[in-house]
Amino acid sequence: MNVGIDLLKAIRSGRLHDVRAVLDAGASAELLDGRGDPGLPLGVACFMGYADIVRELVSRGAKVNTPDNSQPTSPLSMAVRGNRKEVVKALIELGAKVPPGMQTGLSEQEMMIARLRGQQYSAKTAGAGEYHPEPPVVVEEIEMFSCYGTNTAVLDADMIRAAREMEKKK
Question: For residue 11, which of 24, 26, 67, 168 sits 20 to 30 Å off, Cα-Cα?
């Protein structure tokens, strides 16, 4: 039984339960890829679009950031290449640093919300790959079937102000 191969098979199947079982059996969340760089399991999960598996791997020690997140094998680049917007959002919530000019497929508002959620969840990934999940803050979401005549400029301004304040704190 090779736990590294078992982990990759579990990730490719998309079954979080199987991934947890293999990690519990002793597999490392930081397996080396073919070039000798760590992060193969996280890269596969990112490319395939399994945000729940991405969160599990990070909680078990996988590193969200690489020395250069614009490299094709970085978790963020793998998610972007796979066109996995939900995974890109999850990575940003977990503390992934988006290189300047990188096209993530997310709007400015989606990026802002992901960063705010990352702060709320206290995602800590500053180089150490640590992630300490806390219960999520309850956010009221309003479903609107029609917004004809609704002025959202004030809400947009509040979100932009909050994002700028968050960037200043960094």
Answer: 67
Domains of the chain: 3-142 (1.25.40.20)
**55, 41 Cβ separation under 8 angstroms:** no
Which residues in the chain show pLDDT less than 70? 1, 121-152, 170
CA dihedral 124, 16, 137, 66 (to 10 degrees): 20
| Residues 63, 86: Cα–Cα separation, whole Å | 18
Task: Read off φ and ψ for residue 61, nearest 5 degrees.
Answer: 110, 0
Residues 6 or more apart whose CB falls under 8 angstroms from that of 115 comprise 92, 93, 163, 166
Whole-number Å distance between alpha carbons of 32 and 16: 21
pTM: predicted TM-score of the whole model, two decimal places: 0.71
- pLDDT at site 77: 94
Per-residue confidence (pLDDT) for residue 35, from 0 to 100: 80
* Nearby residues of 28 by Cβ (< 8 Å), 6 or more positions away: 4, 61
